[in-house]
Write a structure and sequence with these properties.
Blueprint (H helix, E strand, L loop, with lengths): L1 H71 L22 E3 L2 E5 L3 E7 L4 E3 L3 E5 L6 E10 L2 E3 L1 E3 L3 E6 L12 E3 L5 E12 L15 E7 L2 E8 L10 E14 L4 E6 L2 E11 L1
């Protein structure tokens, strides 16, 4: 009987020992795995912190450098204002650049644009001027604003103006509607011009002779020439120059414009004197 108990219990003791060893091995493996995970996590965190510190230091250095550059260029072409929207004048004589043209059967030719100066009423006599066309004097037969007919419009309003007895082919985008005899047509004017720096997209090299370019007025580009009079222009310069246009424009002092080289804007100007 004792022998049977011994024989029956011995294997159980061996299984119990094997089970204990397996349990220890599993615990060791779990501890090792936890240690590896902790090491990987802390190592990546450390590297990430170092990377962030390096990035922050570089960013701080770049910011300081940019601030220094901006401070050095505070009066240069990098600060050129390229907004040429007019300062709407409610009291001046009526003026509206033509940005689009339509023809409506039964109503005639319609000039579309935003009034930059003064006001206009139905029945007013106005002139169509510019771009080497003969000056046409006509009458305002109707004014439309936001799909509604109105009797009067003023500076800042975007309107459609119906013109009496004007053929579609006699009017062109870029011309202006104006109070008769209130503005002159010209091809020559003087302007104060601010040129962009090279980094801001301006010219790469100094301009040393008369410079053909595009003058951007009223949603159109006009061929023109900057007359240097033996002066040089460097990127970022602010200068006063005479400009000659290939086609006449109805211009006045304080009007704003852009200077373009092909499709790239290189400067902005404001008219100081009209010849």
């Amino acid at each position: 009987m004792d022998m049977n108990n011994f024989q029956n219990n011995e294997p159980l003791k061996v299984e119990s020992n094997n089970s204990g060893i397996k349990t220890i091995i599993v615990l060791v493996l779990i501890i090792v795995a936890i240690g590896v995970v902790i090491w990987l996590f802390t190592g990546k965190s450390f590297n990430k912190d170092n990377s962030n510190n390096t990035t922050n230091n570089n960013s701080s250095s770049n910011t300081n450098q940019e601030s220094s550059n901006n401070s050095n260029n505070s009066t240069s072409g990098s600060k050129v204002d390229l907004n040429i929207d007019p300062d709407f004048d409610l009291d001046g004589p009526f003026l509206m650049p033509i940005s689009d043209i339509f023809y409506e059967t039964g109503k005639g030719t319609i000039a579309v644009g935003q009034i930059s100066r003064g006001s206009v009423h139905v029945g007013d006599s106005i002139s169509i001027m510019g771009l080497d066309h003969d000056i046409i004097t006509t009458t305002v037969s109707e004014i439309e604003h936001i799909l509604s007919s109105i009797d009067e419009a003023q500076a800042g309003d975007k309107v459609s103006i119906y013109l009496t007895d004007v053929a579609r082919e006699d009017i062109e985008k870029g011309q202006v509607l104006a109070l008769p005899n209130s503005i002159e047509e010209t091809k020559n004017f003087e302007a104060e011009i601010s040129f962009l720096t090279t980094n801001a997209g301006g010219i790469n090299l100094p301009i040393t002779s008369d410079y053909p370019c595009l003058i951007h007025f009223n949603d159109i580009d006009i061929d023109g020439t900057l007359l240097l009079d033996n002066n040089n222009i460097n990127p970022g310069d602010k200068v006063t120059l005479n400009i000659k246009l290939e086609r006449s424009m109805a211009l006045d002092e304080d009007m704003k414009f852009l200077i373009k080289d092909s499709d790239k804007t290189i400067g902005a100007g404001v008219i100081t004197n009209v010849d």
